[in-house]
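Predict structure. Chain length: 252.
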Amino acid sequence: MALLIAENLKKNFGKTEVLKGISFSLEKGQVLAIIGSSGSGKTTLLRCLNFLELPDEGSITVGDKVLIDCAKAETLDDETIRQNRLHFGLVFQNFNLFPQYSVLGNVTLAPTLLKKGTPEEIEANARRLLDQVGLSDKLENYPHQLSGGQQQRVAIARALALQPEVLCFDEPTSALDPELTGEVLRVIRGLKNRDTTMIVVTHEMEFAREVADVVMYMADGVIEEMGTPEQVFDNPQSEKTRSFLHGAHEKF
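Prediction complete.
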């Protein structure tokens, strides 16, 4: 049974159609890499899955729970939206850490506010996650004292602290210098080995080839092509996919 099912997701901003009917499913432990040019709808798709935007049409199901079904025309209240978001973790491009909190404070804040355990349990889990991402020596540091790569690793630990079913990344290395990109990608590879279900929007083609179970190429608000890394990268069926991959190869 699929862990995540998205069916016919559509999203407009004014008269601009950004998502034109996105459907896919993801099994537990799978990694989906989403590639595509700027403006193809990748980030909007992530924002809809994380309920930072509400789709205009379609449905999102996690496990056996339908989180939203636009066909039922029901209005989700703020509390329902907050609960729906807990099924997903989102790591942003620009880290979005709280500057006034230490590394440990950033990771424990949300579980504390949501009462996801005793203070001792929450701190122990945060320490374990920060050790997992290689930052056990930075617990008392503040974001401004960290490199970009370290900040992004804190952001990953923070997202994991709420134990989401699906962990989403929006271009997790785009704000990093090349030498810092590797350390973040190593952490994401490690999460795959721990059977974490992930959706990664990325421009790192070799990383997508290596880590993803499924690759989705988006263009103009639709899924232009989807398949295994071997299918998409080595034998693309769409001319748009071939052109994009050729351009990405030339660029990088």
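Summary: The chain has nine helices and ten strands.
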